[in-house]
Inverse folding.
């Protein structure tokens, strides 16, 4: 049994979009939980099994899986016919797994560091900076039109996320901006975002 813990308008929307793109909605029970929000609203939800009270959390037969990259690897491996990732064990799958790890370990931290105006030699040595990460994105998209090449994949869902949320933080690079727009224009993304906005409204009204 698979259960996804989700909170509206948060990082877990990437997993909802993935589920929609994969067409595996019938296999996953989605539970909406609250999280503490930056504006002081919300709060940790005792129903959420994430060890830090965050979202997303995927529970598979009692095992708790957190971190979007890991959840994406798990779901795309469990449902290999969905077309959202290369076949497990192929060189392309290795590249796909690389993008998952690179997002979590490099792109998002570098994006946050830039937004926070923080720089430190230890951070720069370990993860470089947003500009360097953007150069890598640009190089992948030059071969594009998607991160993995000709085919849209879960790598696009994960990697375009911060730019979809924070347009002001999106690099002034037509290749990247057009890619973000293409990701946002996907019917699955539009549907999930509209549903999520409604969920957020009812949460605020509650
Ligand atoms: N590294 C995690 C980050 C998860 C995360 O930070 N989620 C935010 C939502 S956008 C959250 O749950 N925040 C609530 C909190 O900080 O307690 C991932 O990629 O899944």
């Amino acid at each position: 049994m698979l259960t996804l813990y989700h909170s509206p308008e948060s990082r877990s929307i990437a997993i909802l979009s993935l589920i929609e793109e994969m067409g595996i909605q019938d296999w996953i029970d989605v539970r909406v939980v609250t999280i503490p929000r930056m504006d002081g609203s919300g709060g940790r939800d005792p129903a959420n099994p994430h060890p830090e009270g965050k979202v997303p959390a995927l529970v598979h037969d009692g095992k708790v899986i957190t971190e979007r990259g890991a959840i994406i690897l798990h779901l795309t491996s469990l449902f290999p016919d969905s077309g959202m990732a290369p076949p497990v064990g192929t060189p392309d799958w290795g590249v796909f797994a690389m993008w998952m790890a690179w997002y979590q370990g490099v792109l998002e931290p570098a994006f946050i560091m830039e937004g926070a105006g923080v720089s430190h030699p230890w951070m720069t040595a370990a993860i470089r900076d947003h500009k360097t990460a953007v150069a890598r994105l640009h190089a992948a998209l030059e071969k594009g039109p998607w991160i993995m090449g000709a085919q849209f994949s879960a790598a696009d869902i994960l990697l375009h996320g911060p730019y979809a949320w924070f347009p002001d933080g999106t690099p002034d690079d037509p290749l990247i901006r057009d890619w973000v727009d293409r990701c946002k224009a996907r019917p699955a993304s539009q549907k999930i975002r509209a549903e999520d906005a409604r969920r957020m409204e009812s949460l605020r009204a509650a």
Observations:
- The beta strands are 2-6, 28-32, 57-60, 63-66.
- Residues 2-83 form a domain with the Glutaredoxin fold (CATH 3.40.30.10).
- Residues 60 and 117 are 38 Å apart (CA to CA).
- The pocket of glutathione is lined by residues 10-11, 35-36, 53-56, 67-68, 104 (CB under 6 Å).
